[in-house]
Amino acid sequence: MPIAEDITRIALQEQQLQFSSFDESTAWSLGSRLRALAVSRNLSVVIDIRRFGQPLFYTALAGTTPDNVDWVRRKSNLTARFLRSSYAVGLSLKLKGSSLEQSYGLTNADYADHGGCFPIAVAQAGVIGSVTVSGLPQRADHELAVEALCEELGLVYATLALD
Prior knowledge:
Strand 4 (about 115-120) and strand 5 form a beta hairpin. The mean pLDDT is about 95. The protein has helices at about 5-15, 25-40, 65-80, 85-95, 100-105, 140-155, and strands at about 20, 45-50, 55-60, 115-120, 125-135. It is an alpha+beta fold. The longest helix is centred in the N-terminal third of the chain and has 17 residues, at about 25-40.
């Protein structure tokens, strides 16, 4: 799928995947669901769910490394900065032929514009945190998070999945 179409589809995902409320129990439910999906598929991923500034759920599955932990931190920083999916930001920069450093003066040491971090939005409140997956190719990291969000929110993943 062309980049512009993916960007449009991710914007739809961001619009549709909103919670009516989000607390520690919701984070645990989403994280557990995401972990179960990863375990059932034998995926080596790190999963992090947070309200900005407050970790709520974390797990590192077999086969992950400290590098995955750093990817989570950097992707989460990007979503906190732009209140968008890290994949959407990365694709937008790619479409413009630019980089985080060129466009915003942000270093790769602290920010990663690779897929896998998705904003947690609450209706009437906006983006309050993020869910991050690291360990797979960036599109797969992104889609695993979206799939779990769809399940948690009672939405059909196939209607929001990237083609």
